[in-house]
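Incident log entry.

Two folding requests arrived from the same account within the same minute. Monitoring flagged them as a possible duplicate submission, but the sequences differ. Recording both here for audit purposes.

Request one:
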Amino acid sequence: KSQMNENLKKIANHFGHASQLNKISEESKELTEAADDYHQALVVEDDPIELAYAREHLIEEMADTLIMIKQVAYLECAEDELAEAVEQKTQRTLKRIKEGFYGNDTNA
């Protein structure tokens, strides 16, 4: 296992289950806001500085959320279940794309 995973386990064990469940909720809300801000900067605004800032913020919030997802999966003893669910959902989306489920929607 990687050192990062071991460090995340130490952090998860230190703060505990309830705290990290609360934190994953907080971080996912911040990620949603950052994604909305980046989308706004990408599609609507014409300011390269704002776009760069919004992109950097999005990446930071993705990292925070991914860290919490990994910790909660560990605390739930659900790392394998999470990997399986990701694979199933990936395959389902690929199947839907192939079947034309999304039509011409390029945001599938």
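Request two (distinct sequence, not a duplicate):
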Amino acid sequence: MVKIYQLYGIETAMQMLRPNARWEITNSVITKWEDYREKPTWEEIQATMDKIKAFEDSIDTVWTPAQIKEYTGQEK
């Protein structure tokens, strides 16, 4: 079974933590922050990503062979 994550990632975690904030991350460090709200810590970002991954892992998505090839480059 191939697992393809659609939501899991820093971008989704940041959108959930600070919607529409403008930011850049380099090597797990927020290097640019353009928002009046306090920037999240790397630990908060990781914890949110873990929750997103757990959510996606709980869903038995069925991909077509063409989708698997498209997203992974693998036949299956």
